[in-house]
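Hi team,

Below is the intake form for Deoxyribodipyrimidine photolyase from Pedobacter jejuensis. Please confirm the fields before the structure is written into the shared record.

FORM ID: S-0412
PROTEIN: Deoxyribodipyrimidine photolyase
ORGANISM: Pedobacter jejuensis
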Amino acid sequence: MSEPKFTTDYNLILEKVAEINPVEYAKTRNFIDGAVSHLSPYISRGVISLKQVKQEASNKGLEPYQIEKFLQELAWREYYQRIWQVRGDAIWNDLRQPQPDVLHNKMVKAVVEARTNITAIDAGINKLYESGYMHNHVRMYVASIVCNIGKAYWLQPSKWLYYNLLDGDVASNNASWQWVAAAFSDKKYYFNQENLNKYTGSDQRNTFMDKSYEDVATMEIPDVLLETIDLKLETILPETEKPTIDTSKPTIIYNSYNLDPQWRKDEDANRILLLEPSHFSKYPVSERVIQFVIDLSKNIPGIQVFVGEISELVTFYDGSELNIEKAIISKNHVAFKHYPGIKDDYEWMFPEVTGEYSSFFKYWKRCKAYL
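The structure came back. Fields below:
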């Protein structure tokens, strides 16, 4: 299968939304060549919302049962967001219980270098580096190899994946790694070569995963996974000029999680894509991701890109008649709670279902009442 191409043109993105096929998605989503939507980078970056995609699926004239699996998979992302909203920085800790059987806190070198000698896994890692995307099932396979076979603590590996993903989302990424590693689930997620071949189209045999599930769960760490590496992830931000701010008008702040061209689009305001070094020090991403964010921002007329802190933008309004609590406008997000001013609500799929639930299926049961 060819690598997905992620356009940054808003009209083409909307075409991709219109092309979703919930029925085929439900049947084939676990196959790497299945009918997945490839909308996740645009959802993660706030170009489109889960609510918007839900509405598109609901407008296709299908029976509720035909779109339920698609909506359920969308809801996983919202479920994780609610956890992040409640837990805050504790999203970086084991969410339910300590990860079992941890031998080290580093990353498995063979995975970073795409040389596990499992063809489909190495191909998936190389595609990640080439395109910024990894199929969700391959993400689970990789996490299982790193944490459950290689005995790594989930934290540094999760940061490696987030660093490279165009659709990187801290809540979904952290919680998914923990789910695989049994820090956010009751048991570890395992697969074997037979399962991998089924969903990736591979026919490889005689790998360290070519065993029964029982043997996979109890085997010693394969030699190829023994070498570890301590990753130093760093974001390289572009140099930018100080923005031109008309302080008689408010400033609307966009960021790597909010690039919605429709948001407050008719208002007379300054528009800034704010790339804070402090944010990317905490949540490092690759140059590819930064360029993707910048390219997506070009859908917003009049936007200026500024690498700096929100505190620097605030100083523009020193002496202005416009009160700072009205001068800065952003969308509410747990990663940007430090922004002052007006904060618009996040567009939830299920705004009525708030707080943290002990399991996704308890959360989903509550959500179904609002379908």
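SUMMARY LINE: The first strand starts at residue 107 and ends at 108.

Thanks, M.
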